[in-house]
Amino acid sequence: MTSKIELEGMRFYAFHGVSPQERTVGNSFVVTLSLTVPVQAAVESDELAHTVNYAEVYESVNEEMKIPSRLLEHVAGRILYALKKRFPQVTTACIKVSKQAPPFGGEVRSASVILEECWA
After folding, report:
1. From the DSSP assignment, how many helices (H) and strands (E) are in the chain?
2. pLDDT per residue over 46-85, tens digit each?
3. Looking at the predicted structure, is the pLDDT value of residue 3 above 80?
């Protein structure tokens, strides 16, 4: 038995962007994450040790969002690799990192990058 664990709409203020101004002033970002995890033991035991702790997942994402990057692809990839290292039981991960109101002279709610990785 596997499960999708999803953290949806995590909000961060961070300093990612190609232009120096973006890395100085910052912007709002929204991260949504879906992890595939075997959960049969957790279903039977009702023990946190048999699944992935959502609070620890959030903390991993938060730590990576604090590190400025030029590209959203780099941010998303770093988060996925950090999660895989910390939670080896994860078999598949999908992340969406969205920059709110990107500064390129048009009316756009967000610009996003979606990465999927399968480790199984």
Report:
1. 4, 4
2. 999 999 999 999 999 999 999 999 999 999 999 999 999 9
3. yes
**Is there a contact between 51 and 2 (Cβ–Cβ < 8 Å)?**
no
Pairing of strands 27-38, 2-14: antiparallel
The rounded Cα 41 to chain-centroid distance in angstroms is: 25
- Scored b (16 or more CB within 10 A) or e, 2-21 reads eeebebeebebebbbbeeee
Say how far apart CA 70 and CA 37 lie, in whole Å: 31
Task: Enter the DSSP assignment of 42.
Answer: H
Q: pTM for this one?
A: 0.93
- Tell me which DSSP letter residue 73 carries: H
Closest CA to 61 of 17, 14, 25, 116: 14
Catalytic amino acids?
A: 99
